[in-house]
Design goal:
This protein has about 210 residues and is α/β, with parallel strands linked by helices. The chain is about 35% helix and about 15% strand. The protein has one domain: Phosphoglycerate mutase-like (Rossmann fold), CATH 3.40.50. It has a six-stranded mixed sheet. Helix 2 packs across helix 3. It starts with 7 loop residues before the first strand and ends in a 7-residue tail after the last strand.
Length: about 210
């Protein structure tokens, strides 16, 4: 049974050392680095400005975060950009990043020639590729769909790049090959509404 996603704003966590090194991170709890903390701060200021621009109050949104530390710190830094009372944060394990199983911690380039195709070189079948002791993007889509069915109103979500790939497939009907090869930004706020996503890079001017 299909359902309609409510409007929501999505922020991917900021950079970690493993991101910078090009390592598969997945469900490993790797912390933000200095660049990532700066990205989170800028994304918080951008989200605040986007809500002001749209005439929305923070109280109109439920706030959700992945349980992994890099997402939780990103959320806290985002919320520090707002004044006044904020809704409580719901930590939802369904927002955890896709698990790459035995491949977590390995460099993307180390596995590209055989064990796991690198982003930019994947075909549509990668949507269903499940590494040993890991998940496929199709597996991830099942838990993200379950999460989405439980959303009763607008939301602000801080999670991961794999989750954002899946959301664009589920909501915008990205073809599988496009979804698994798209590079999710860490310096942007993504606004989902009416079946499409709008990406707002932090630091840009969004005055009409």
């Amino acid at each position: 049974m299909t359902f309609t996603w409510p409007e929501f704003y999505f922020v991917r966590h900021g950079q970690t050392d493993w991101n910078a090194e090009g390592r598969y991170q997945g469900s490993k709890d790797i912390p933000l680095n200095a660049i990532g903390r700066g990205q989170a701060d800028k994304n918080g200021a951008l989200l605040r400005d986007l809500l002001v621009r749209s005439g929305r109050s923070v109280s109109e949104f439920d706030w959700y975060v992945s349980p992994l530390g890099r997402a939780r710190e990103t959320m806290e830094r985002i919320r520090a950009c707002f004044t006044g009372p904020l809704p409580a944060i719901t930590t939802d394990p369904r927002l955890t990043e896709i698990s790459f199983g035995v491949h977590e911690g390995h460099l993307h380039t180390e596995l590209a020639s055989g064990a796991m195709a690198i982003a930019g070189e994947r075909d549509a079948s990668f949507w269903y590729f499940r590494p040993p002791r890991g998940e496929s993007y199709d597996d991830l889509a099942l838990r993200i769909t379950e999460f989405g069915r439980g959303l009763s109103r607008r939301a602000i979500i801080v999670s991961h790049g794999g989750v954002l790939r899946v959301l664009r497939r589920l909501i915008e009907d990205f073809p599988p090959d496009r979804a698994v090869n798209w590079f999710p930004p860490q310096d942007s706020v993504v606004h989902f509404a009416d079946g499409r996503a709008t990406l707002y890079p932090a630091g840009a001017s969004w005055d009409d």
